[in-house]
Design goal:
mainly alpha, 6 helices, 9% strand, transmembrane helix, Membrane protein, membrane
């Protein structure tokens, strides 16, 4: 037979070891020792309750928290992120307006309302033609113009907000955040 009780290999300590890995590795860190039995060999009622509560207390997650302060917002970074977000919003707006127009056209809303308006305004001028006024190319052109204006304004306002935040944070210290991590 071979002797397996020789020296154990060295494993350097980890910077962070979750409680589940500690328990699986056989570490005693975080464990609550059970009280020793009394002189007559029986546990007292108080120590039995503490021993039963120990596994529940060891399994409860700990929460680490840190207070951080946002001292500066980089305007270039804010501009890039706000541009991409507003561009995504503009694309979503164009797609939503297109789908809405197609649904309303398939339901016959434009022809019904256009006929009513044409009958109400008919006279010497020939009436108002709603269907030609609200055609898909015209609606998409108007929506695209509005979306481009929204992208430019949102990007400019977010960048300006970053400059204003940096200016005010230099006076009052910035926004403080409390971040929490569950282990």
């Amino acid at each position: 037979m071979t002797d397996t009780r020789g020296p154990k290999p060295y494993h350097p300590p980890k910077a962070y070891e979750p409680p589940a890995e500690r328990a699986a590795a056989g570490g005693t860190k975080g464990r609550v020792p059970r009280p020793a039995p009394g002189a007559d060999g029986a546990k007292s009622t108080r120590s039995a309750k503490a021993a039963d509560a120990a596994p529940a207390a060891a399994a409860a997650p700990r929460t680490r928290s840190a207070r951080l302060r946002v001292a500066k917002a980089d305007p270039w970074s804010v501009m890039k992120v706000s541009f991409l977000l507003s561009l995504a919003l503009a694309v979503c707006t164009i797609v939503a307006i297109t789908v809405l127009w197609l649904v309303l056209d398939a339901m016959g809303v434009f022809s019904t309302v256009g006929g009513t308006i044409s009958d109400a305004t008919s006279g010497e001028g020939g009436g108002f033609d709603l269907q030609s006024f609200l055609s898909l190319p015209r609606v998409l052109m108007f929506t695209t113009v509005i979306a481009v204006i929204e992208v430019v304004l949102a990007t400019a306002l977010a960048t300006l907000a970053a400059f204003v935040y940096n200016l005010s944070a230099s006076f009052v210290g910035g926004v403080e955040l409390t971040l929490a991590e569950d282990e």
